[in-house]
Design brief:
The chain is an alpha/beta fold. 41% of the residues lie in helices and 14% in strands. It contains 14 helices and twelve strands. The strands form three sheets. Strands 2-8-7-6-5-3-4 form a seven-stranded mixed β-sheet, sandwiched between helices. The protein has a three-stranded antiparallel β-sheet with strand order 9-12-11. Helix 2 (42-54) crosses helix 11 (267-279), helix 4 (95-107) crosses helix 10 and helix 12 runs parallel beside helix 14. The protein is globular, with a radius of gyration of 20 Å. The relative contact order is 0.18. Residues 16, 33-34, 170 line the site of glutamine (GLN).
Length: 382
Amino acid sequence: MKYPESKLPEIGTTIFTVMSQMAAEHGAINLAQGFPDFNGPKLLLDAVNTHVVKGQNQYAPMTGIPELREQIALKVERLYQRKVCAQTEVTVTSGATEAIYAAIASVVQPGDEVIVLDPAFDCYNPAIILNGAIPVHVQLQAPSFTLDWHALAAAVTAKTRLIIFNSPHNPSGAVMSEADLQQLEALVAGTDILLIGDDVYEHIIFDGAEHLSFVKYPRLYERSFVISSFGKTYHVTGWKIGYCVAPPQLTHEFRKVHQFLNFCTASPLQYALADVMREQPEHYLQLPAFYQQKRDLFNQLMEKSRFSGAPASGSYFQVLDYSRISDLDDMAFCEYLTKEIGVAAIPMSVFCKNPPAMKLVRFCFAKNDQTLREACEKLVQL
Ligand code: GLN
């Protein structure tokens, strides 16, 4: 028989799987794929156990359990000063990746254009293509990865349906400023362009900066899917649980896709997250300080190395330039780091359609201090 042509001919195995496998095979410290090597809050872990034993083991409501949606709505109001309706604007999803796919699938028509800002997290492009739309890539300017608003405006056409933003930004660690948000308001005013705010690192932002969620801005929120991740916030990336906040009309369409992608998300995890959000709201308020200490430790340890770069403004990733160490391209350099030096990292060029000349790699600092020390000891020898 003849198998069908690939629907994603240009897509290979995600870099996160490639590098985590390579790290495991070679016994390297994995600073590549972004996940903590420490556990979530004890209250959260104990609560899962309690809810499993109590019998919360059947399907949750398709939209998420009301208790958790209420807590999400309360948090949004507390942090972003908007009352969102837990019934009609909040949906719990099986991770942010599912939410991003559902958001894209629910609004793009074949032939629509979707603008992504490169380097772009690698789940955007395939979701756009699988839904028959056309990704349009606008390159952020290295090394600070700021957005050239003229370049973005030039990429907008009558076919632009959606623009995907991500702040704090993975992989670069850059964050959007108030001026950026004003530019965005002006860009979309009078259009039907929709937005995705990929806010998964909303609580991991440094140096006193505040996360500027689209939820805060009425003229942006009316056209936005705002997506976040409990995995990042509660150190439980393997739970694959997140949520989407969007105005009722968009949520209505979003749920039509979500209900047939996953239907619902694991019940006991939802009950446990509702408990921790209710009982320990300080957890996410303390995350900036918690991760800033790790960012600073990592950068301080790396001062003795020949890597260079400015500290990340947000996310748990630090991008560093290795041009003083090697002429290898970034993929080859990451392979060398993993196999020969014993530390895995992520190459930056894989997130760009047309990668500019750059020698940058991304390290994840969501690790115990001891892990960071051991990794940096190896890296400073280069
Ligand atoms: N968000 C994680 C990172 O950027 C990876 C998630 C995944 O592996 N799908 O490292």
